[in-house]
Amino acid sequence: MLAMLNRILRPALKQAQLSPGVRNTQLSWRHKTQIRACAASSATFQPLEDCLVLNYGGTAMHLNYVWLRDHCRSAASYNSSTNQRNLDTGSIDLTIRPDDATVQNGHLILTWPGGHVSNYSLSWLAENSYEGKKRSNIQPRILWNSHIYEEANIPSAKWDTFMSCDDEVKKFLQNYLLYGIAFVDDVPATVEATEAVTQRVSLIRETTYGRMWCFTSDFSRGDTAYSQQALDRHTDTSYFQEPCGIQVFHCLKHEGTGGRTLLVDGFYAAEKVRQQSPENFELLSHVPIRHEYIENSDNHRNHMTGIGPVLNVYPWNNEMYLIRYNNYDRSVINTMPHDLVQRWYEAHRELTTELRRPENELWVKLTPGKVIFIDNWRVMHGRESFTGLRQLCGCYLTRDDVLSSARCFGLQA
Prior knowledge:
single chain, globular, 4-stranded antiparallel β-sheet
């Protein structure tokens, strides 16, 4: 036992010898915490000058002292009824250090100057530490080409069940989160029914195109979508600072030929670029470019601009969460220096090549009764040219509310 204590105390004593100005109280705290850490079978920890290093579940977490005080979940610091912070972060001493620390029964317990006690579940710390988040995805996804998606044989939701059964909505949302597209079949071919089915999962986002829109190839708006010509793969509203999250389409009528809908998983193509040319992926995810929508007609006047990189990733885990790809609405490239322009075009060309590979194209014929929900931050859509009268209705949905609905069902999003 004495030998064990010597091994525990030796590092702290050595540090005290190297730093003669260290206060006795701080040295005493280090002795106590290290001894208690050894006594805890599930975790060990070591106090450093700027953080506490907690080893738990095979991961070493570096927990800043101000962060620990700020994230105290005691009743005085946090309102568990509203899930809001009570503590004034601006009042925390930026040099704060705990007077005492221990691990007991799966919890890290810290006593702060003044006597306040914070109690943290080790599993909560592991889940919410930077090290934990760096190793996990915010949203699980299955990236696909046409073969992968068709082999998955994902069932569509059915109108009657979808409108009356929450379990059907949950299954639908799970498919949507994983693949970025989901279908509801047997929907009455009306604008009203389309509106009702969308509101089962989210709020409708009203834009310059209205709340629910219904259009044909009449060129009533200054957009090529209002024509009969083919449209290449693209994401919508890239000219919004926050592009619309979900695109909904319902073909109410088509008296003619052609008009199939093209779907491409943008994340699948972008991941190929990341694997093949990491430097090109890096460029596309860091250089902001401008998209623009200008409309000047008798009935509509709009000038919208959105700025952001083609690929957007979370910086802590490099997970993609948004792609802006619309060659129709991309504006003048003037947001990068000369020495990057050629490299950007080469990176963009590699992504375009991946997006245009035939094996990555999923073609779907939308018919009356089939409503498609598309993750506009991930999956691109287009169409082949068509003849005859083709009437579509649809809307945009707010991404935040779709994800909120999914989380309320217990899904990871």
